[in-house]
Amino acid sequence: MTTPQISEMEQEQLIEKLEIFKIHGRDKRGRKILRIIGKFFPARFLSLDVLNKYLEEKIFPRLGRKPFAVLYVHTGVQRSENFPGISALRAIYDAIPVNVRDNLQEVYFLHPGLQSRLFLATCGRFLFSGGLYGKLRYISRVDYLWEHVRRNEIEMPEFVYDHDDDLEYRPMMDYGQESDHARVYAGATAVDSSVSSFSMRCIS
């Protein structure tokens, strides 16, 4: 993650506006779900301190003391735009309180892609302590997600379903042999390359 060019207040408002993190619905075991939309994560415009403060104040208290699951939507994530970096991921994970980590029972990883699978297979056990790697459950299609999550309680951006359609017609994308970079997801909130797109006008 690079040094942000917007204020801490604007960063917090940006996280809220984009709904990157949302406690939303339950899985079929009745556990609360923390939904994370990776494509909406503006890695270049957030500091670790602001992100950790937001999670500590706005998300972790709402999870309570009961077991919960994470639904991480990896659809459309690009390393140059939405990926915070390995060291940042480790720092975010290390900042999670122990009781929250202990209550995390499962991570549903939607649309992982070949590179993500390889990265986690080779580095996941070393990066994340507390058995997090063993809690990962890869989900290649939205339809398979409903086997684990209550369908009527979870909202998904339209571009997630569009990507599913692409995978049906271009299955080699699952194995990293075709790119989906050319698709423009008209229904998605895009993270523009200019800081001006995150002005107070956009946030308000």
Automatic annotation (TrEMBL):
Gene3D superfamilies: CRAL-TRIO lipid binding domain (3.40.525.10). It comes from the Eukaryota. InterPro entries: CRAL-TRIO_dom (IPR001251), CRAL-TRIO_dom_sf (IPR036865). Pfam families: CRAL_TRIO_2 (PF13716). SMART domains: SEC14. Residues 14-163 form the CRAL-TRIO domain. PANTHER family: OS01G0948300 PROTEIN (PTHR48411:SF1). This is CRAL-TRIO domain-containing protein. It comes from Brassica rapa subsp. trilocularis.
